[in-house]
Batch of 4 targets.
Target 1
Amino acid sequence: MYKYLREDVKKLKPYQVNEIKYKIKLDANEGIDWMDGLNKYPDDTCKSLREKLGERLNRKPSEILIGNGSSELIGYIMNAYLEIGETVLSIWPTFSMYEIYTIINKGKYRKFPLKDMVDLDVTAFIDLAKESKAKLVIISNPNNPTGTVISMEDIRRIISSLDAMVILDEAYIEFSDLPIEDYTREFENLIVLRTFSKAMALAGIRLGYMIAHENTIDCVNRIRSPYNVNTLTQDVGIKALDKHEEIDKNIEMVKSERERIRSYMESKGYRPLPSQGNFLFFKGTKDLGSKLANKGVLIRGFGGELEGYYRLTIGTVEENNGFIKGFEEVLNETEQSY
Ligand code: PMP
């Protein structure tokens, strides 16, 4: 949406790459090929990948922007829209990079706590967004690290009530029961972010994308770094989009493992939150993380107000069994030490 665009970015034109057909290409100071044509800069606008994704999503390529991971796109969106001192509102707890990107962009970050780390009081959230004149509202749905979800009905209420850009970060949507449908044609102030890092299990290639009205894509594209997505990543991304079956099988496996590990944790007296991501979030003892790490099992611990909370990623059956084994040992050792 042009309305919310930073004033100085309104005058900015995106970096233009020559797209004229050629026989001999001597316009970009590229070196001489010695490895698989990688001497050439990548396709700047990721044309083929956007076309393929567009077919999958039933969107025009002009409604999609590709990033070096969805993290890069979060930064770009703030670059494009946030003036110094303007407010970014999110829920708490959530993905820590939202606050970091806000600070980098000299914005003011406000957090609205989820009730018992699960439920969102939508009316109060909307009130705070209005009161703080939030320019950007960013929501991870399902939410990292809690795994909890906000219903699409509530999300729609937030988008339609606010005079702000709403960024819906759907990094984990494939693991959830939420509809994989975006409402970017209905709401011009909505940006949907997705990634290849989670359900597609390709975090190593760094690939994410945003879906939005084409005016919004134009806005964010103005501040995008040239050639932000490398050639190898674009190629793998395109190939991956044809591998539905393997990916769907993995998602189903993760979902059923998530429930198995949840039952196990509950049988041990722990209470993981109702997660719809590929992870479980729970409260443990302060030293659980370090004790597990001593056994070679890494889970994510948190500090500050989340001290004692942990996020466990759901892996393969073998990896999860490895976690259970390590966890059992830690529990037994703790009992013996009393
Ligand atoms: N959004 C959320 C909610 C995340 O948890 C993550 C990764 N932890 C990202 C975005 C970033 O993903 P990527 O940059 O790998 O696409």
Target 2
Amino acid sequence: MCGIVGYIGQEQAAGILLDGLSRLEYRGYDSAGIAVISDGKLTIRRAQGKLSKLREMIHSQSPEGKIGIGHTRWATHGRPSETNAHPHRYGKVTVVHNGIIENFSELREALIKKGHHFSSETDTEIIAHLVDEELGPKTPTLTAFRRALHRLKGSFAVALLHEFEPDTLYVARSGSPLVLGLGEGENFVASDVPALLPYTKRVLFLEDGEVAVLSRKNIEIETLDGKKVQREAKTITWTLAMAEKAGYKHFMLKEIFEQPRALADTLRGHLDLVKSNVHGDGSGEIFKTKADLEKIDKVYIVACGTSWHAALVGKYFLESNLKTLVMVEQASEFRYRDPILDKNTLVIAISQSGETADTLTAIRNAKAKGAKVLSIVNVVDSSIARESDGVLYTYTGPEIGVAATKTFTAQIAALHLVGLLLGRKKGSYKKDEAEKFLHELLEVPGKIDEILKQAESIREIALKYAHSEDCLFIGRGPQFPIALEGALKLKEISYLHAEGYPAGELKHGPIALIDQGSPVVAIALQDDYYEKMMSNIQEVLSRQASVVVLATEGDRKISSLAADVIYLPRMHPFLTPILAAVPMQLIAYYIADHRGHDVDQPRNLAKSVTVE
Ligand code: G6P
């Protein structure tokens, strides 16, 4: 997730672009840059680090120009650095981009064979090369732009300047958002509404597969195939604060709703890798040969907090497909033990921030003993990513709510990718089965969307329990970690006492807590654990608990048993934990919000724990 802005008008563009970028910093902040045109000359300014670095640079020497584009970056392909910062220029063409170009390695190789030189590691730079290649004496920029976009696979929002066209700004989108702002003698473009609000409230939302050409007086929209599009402008009534959260009350809720996009990006960003082609972040290269991988006799997954819950879910899939012992450890325990680690051990570290002190020390200890370290990280080039032998990034964009949501489900998806990648390389995962599973994995974002459509009824169920003081979450198999995560979410933001338990352990203690009206959230999907879960539900019901069940759609039996049922789409049992996590997040959110808590910044908690 990155932020794009563009301006064409009567004012100096640099200040307007910087101001817009400052309102999009929530979309990424590892580097930023702008490009402006004046007197036939295009000037680019870029800086690594937060936007303040770019602002300082521009403050001392502001480039002139009344047309420009800007970008704030959250690295995906290519580490955060000045050379990877946008805008990217090739020939007469300069672009900024948000999204992931899936076929970038292929396109890049083809361009290199034709003699192109690349100055960055980004997928974005490809776009500038392709458009420049398509340009010709008889080919106008718009045609070249459209032709180049047709060659891209993946998601993009792009803004483009041609050095010798100071009166035209080109933009396009497919899968990543772009909104156009209409002014008087000036027009704007941005990834999101907050960047536009200080200047105009009249906007046009660009749709997927559309290109727009902005001049000072006019905006023309057409499809990628050149058909004209007529669209009415809308007037935005949001305040700036509302707009930053895209109209959601809290970042956490926004991030819960972003999950279809976050997962789609994480999966799409690694498809080449899973198909065993060498890919950007290099995790395919830890094990150069099948023999290297066969030597691995055990895997430790180490993590903290919510990331540890993702690790617990991943164990089931990895063990089943690698046919290797997989152990999951809390990094804060692992680092102080003396685990058996050697060159035949693979340690998988999971961390949203990539900076959690315990996880970082755990991988340092493991590396010192010769183990190989592969990490799953959200923040590109963070300490854990840098110190690992290989890294697979979750492409969720920055997560602002302290309680992890979109990064959790993306971590589970990333673990599935690791399982597919290593299982295929080792030969322990059959090709046709792996392909079938990958196909179903790619359907997960759409299934999450279906669950999110039930948010209102989930809210109604959650509010029935908003005044409780305790809540028990139960599940079995790969759903047990989701019970843990459901309890953790509720604890973190609503300050209720909550416990997650493997349902089979109820009889060994927690059932003593059950009393009339005690809330129990049970995950009882139609999988191998279904009958056992039904018995556990009967057990708590007979002690007069109030049960909320997460069930498989179409399960009639369950509706006669429990008053509150949340239905999940039917999927492969290794994939349903991702689905079950979503109602858990919503239940916690609605209860916490109802109780009036600061959902995004719960008391005593920090987003990233860099101390022991
Ligand atoms: C903190 C956060 C949690 C997170 C945990 C691990 O406790 O509040 O949401 O799960 O750290 O963080 P990491 O960045 O390593 O995933």
Target 3
Amino acid sequence: MNGLMMDYPLTLQHFLDRVARLYPTKEIATKIGPTMHRYTYADWAKRVNRLAGVLERLGVARGERVGTLAWNTYRHYELYFAVPCAGRVLHTLNLRLPPDQLVYVINHAEDQVIFADASLVPLLDKIKGHLKSVKHFVVMADGALPASALSPVSSYEELLAAESDSFAWPHLEENEAAAMCYTSGTTGNPKAALYSHRAIFLHSLAQGMSGSFGISERDIVLPVVPMFHANAWGLPFTSTMVGAKQVFPGPHLSPPDLLNLIQSERVTITAGVPTIWIGILAELERNGHYDISSLRTMPVGGSAVPRALMEKYEKKYGVPITQAWGMTEMTPLGTVSVLKSYMADWPEERRFDYRVKQGMPSVGVDIRAVDEDGKEVPWDGKTMGELEVRGPWIISAYYKMEGNQDRFHDGWFRTGDVVSIDPEGYIQIVDRTKDLVKSGGEWISSVDLENAIMAHPKVLEAAVIAINHPRWQERPLALVVAKADFKGQISKEEIQEMLAAKFTKWWVPDDVVFIDAVPKTSVGKFDKKVLRDQFKDHVLPA
Ligand code: ADP
């Protein structure tokens, strides 16, 4: 027997309409050069209506993809709603991808139009000859359009000026595609996830909950995570849903820029990958004059959060990091590391033991870990297995891809992450399967070693990779970046002794090499593919 509920589609049109009616005076602020651009949700909604008219005028058909090549700005945020609410598909392009991969994803998605920030036009100029589907370029500029060879090309502001404040929004089904995003290719070629309205709607509800990021109308939200990295982790959608003030950093992502922005806008929530917060911490330690007391939490994910980083922010600056784990394939929220109420009484050490785990599954996400035979492993906090997930905002297939479909089976998605799950239901990522060091038939977690090394007071960053070994198959090599003030003042033996005190002997890296910086991926993660390549001929000491 069926229930008797209205058939109300869960689409982003509801968020758009709601915020415009309920929170018209709340502000959206974007840093542009030395000044701030400010307007309200009422202003924003009018421009979103106009922008939908532009899509119609440019002849983009329902369901077709619209590419964006842009920083985190109010214009990008206008596209975030106009495109899906008009029944087109928002495809956020990763502006840090190498040109050949950018060409690949634009052609693969068959983007019809590309909306680009003026500062990124030179990037498009370079690849335009290889684009097969793009019929129009639209440039988002504050003044005159930059000179370029793009054709046909229009000015975003001129197109908007010609449209009306009220667009006749089409009826949408909740399962229609709203947006798409390619993985950043940390471990392979980019693969596409296609998100439905329903997925984003439910994801926003879950992310906003107090047992999750707890985002409310009172918050001032600054997504440092790029709007092309899994929809800035969904934050612009969730913030719209609740009517929170939003702050966009534009291209100004240096630690002083971000700290000044947090201070001047009184930001309460800011989110990004650990490397961002490592850089910001170094700046805070150098110049202690910033006031970041408005922050009530920082969701950090994308890679494991080093414990030392979490402890420093909380104990010295009073800012708790909320670690989250997710994937582009999951819209992206999977787990959040918030403590249960009875854990509040635990000793501090034990609380941190828990907080550095990747956390409990969000409502809406089922998890399990399986061994190599596909058998579920117990939730004992020890046994390792590959994490599998299912839920309403997890893709059921990659978009237009023949390979990789083995990652979906029996309604579950294989994440490629090796984890243990403890009796409280918290997962701990041991490693990505591709980053594990397989030594003598046993596994060594590169993540655990890195975190331990990064706890050393003289160390800024550390990455551990596997080096082929004739006897043990693989052995760990540690690549370490010393803090600016300690260059040349830290020894290999110091690192090895520290690790020997913490781990069993065979986990200790056979060698430690000091480097100037750990290479980063296009979304700011440690790029171990590059390191493995750089050190493929490295000879470990006997
Ligand atoms: P890419 O696969 O290109 O890196 P994603 O950003 O979607 O793109 O990466 C998802 C992966 O990032 C996860 O499968 C996991 O390996 C890693 N990850 C995300 N959050 C965390 C976290 N909090 N701790 C450890 N690893 C994480």
Target 4
Amino acid sequence: MINLSKNTKQPLSLIYLDANATTQVLPQAASAALSTMETLFGNPSSSHITGLQAKQIVDKTRQQAKSIIGADEGKIIFTSGATEGIQTAILSALVNAKATLNKTKSYSLLYGATEHKAVPESLKHWNKILEINAEIKAIPVDEKGQLDMDFIAKEVPNALMICTMAVNNETGVYQDINFLDQTIRANNPNVAWMVDCVQALGKTDLALALTSIDYAAFSGHKLYAPKGIGFMYVKENAPFTPIIAGGGQESGLRSGTENLPGLAALSEIFSMLLGQSEASFTPVKTLHLYRLQLVSALTQAFPEITFNHSFENSVATTLNFAIPGFSSKEIMDLFDAANIRVSSGSACSSKVTRSFVLDAMGLPAWQSESAIRMSFGPAMTQTEIDIACNRIVSAAQALVQSCLTLGTKSIDTHTMNTNSITDKTELEGLVQFKVGGSCSWLYVDKKTQSALFIDPLPEVSERLQTLLTCRGLDLVAVIDTHGHADHESCRNSIAKKLLAEQQSDSLGWPADAQTTNIHGQKYPYIILGDKWLIKIATPGHTDDSISLLLCDPITHSAEKLQVHYAFCGDLILMDSIGRSNFSTSSTPAMYSSLQLMNTLIGKDSLICPSHDYHNEFTTCLETEMTGNSLLRQVMNSEIDIEEFSSKKIKMDKHIIEESGNEIMCGAFTSNLASACQKVVVHEYDSASLTKAVQKSSNMQLIDIREPHEYALQHDEKFTNNVPLTRLVQFVKEQQQDKEQEFVLVCRSGGRSQLAAQALGRLGFENVGHLKGGYALHQY
Ligand code: PLP
């Protein structure tokens, strides 16, 4: 295991590199907030001394805000945050515009294509509520994230409002405000202009009074003040409509008793920015050096890294990059294990798997899908940056150790002062690679250093080849179970590269295979270590469909096959039987193939299909026949070919409706609802797990994250590591002991729940998981 901290019992200190999402509250800001709760707790509207003291805090903060944003003229209104400021600006501009609308003219509302969602969503909202019916148009950006000035010049004459941002939250890209100002005003002197300044505060100089900006929104929690405090700038005489009416606070522009703790904290931060405090922020010049240091560590750790923005036109505190071959989720998991917090895409929509900002900049899809953002604030210290850089390199080393990357010499030998490369993590047996609902399978025989790849997906081709090189494995064969209709196989390209000498058929079955006799029938087989891989023709889904049985060698024709894994393509899938309405499908052939499999593989051999639509990983005939009545009827010969065909054709008709965007390769059986109903698994929290461990003498605690995450950090009690990619192998090893108690853990409880459900479905009786994972429990 990589030793990141000297004492593994001690959790690693947190390196927080997600300041653009939010920041911690600095101690001096927190203490100012606390004092307004305990001592200076007055209501700024009260006229007694306690009230006057509170009002003084509000007034001081307002004055400071004016200085910081360079707005001697104009108003500062305190809000709950930037989203409220944005709403208020848009409402104000549109209410004003509505009064003078010319019904015969068409209008637009313009916003930058890389704007935070708060902007286009608010525009849509108020445009509809106020029945303005203007066309909402995104202003394109170039590959550097800069707004298209020609578009603005052309469109702004008909615009009621234009919304731009000073600094982008995903890339740190800043706009040339003066050039924007000239372009806007040269073409429309009166249009309302709002600038989202959230990510600019404390990171660039602002002089709003020198511009024609009408509204600007700011947020406290992006700069070390608490959540729930923000402010907006409104240019002198700009139209204004309060969004909240009531007691008349903020001169009637934003009612509601002031958030005094938030304001006191904000005032502390402002004091630091203005040099009025003993504490100070790191100068921008140094922040640039920090970013360079991070860039250098990242490049050393991941030589293939691509940065998604230019450093010339972005603030020093943001880095956005992608690492070829790794999804954002994988890098987030890796960094989380190294206790470095980063984000993928935008934190406000962390479920989104690609970045609309990078899409708008026209970056290639893979960069947008794998984007990682590292951001820090001006309170960052040299020590934290040093630790971050060390950790980044350690994290990359963990990937090298588990053969996900080959690494570089510099990582392998020189840089790891606290960490030394230990042996690569073991790899033997079956590995499952999943891409969406599709699966590829790698089987490794350690003794002979040979490997077999089945149903290769292009997305995992690079990773597989890295793994083979890193472990010095020889590829024996790369085989497709059929010609896939829903995705491209990369079989040919892998075979060309790694098996150039091998003669094979169109699916990759080697021409020099031997034959064996099973129950009087001849089948071809190849040898892999101490196992045989037998090819069985199983047409039905397509006419070329085959199944590959990895089994013990056969010594006698009549003996029962000992099948370890049955790679049966799309013949039998979890909760379904392969689709049979392609041009080369045949339901009678499928009936015979299913019956043949029944006689060859038995009820409990593990089936490894080419799809896993519901995260069930693997199955066996016994499990399938419980939930899949049609399969049961075939296997028990309760129906004949005709009846099977007519039922199957009906089922396949529904497949298009069930498919959605993906071409589904399995027709779900009639009781899909019950088949897909997830097994209920026991959920532990730290307290109940501690109790359960004390009570049970043989409970096994398993960390089911990937080996590189486990190597970086894990709880000592979770002595076993069974990554999800090896779950099927684990099932095989544990199949004889389904009563054993297991508790699974992962980063946040998602993967452990999936694995526990899958094991439960396969008849494991005592599998639970730690709900919320390591994220919520220091178990
Ligand atoms: N605008 C930008 C650029 C942001 O980054 C954010 C927060 O992510 C917001 C607006 C919304 O700010 P708040 O959380 O204060 O409402």
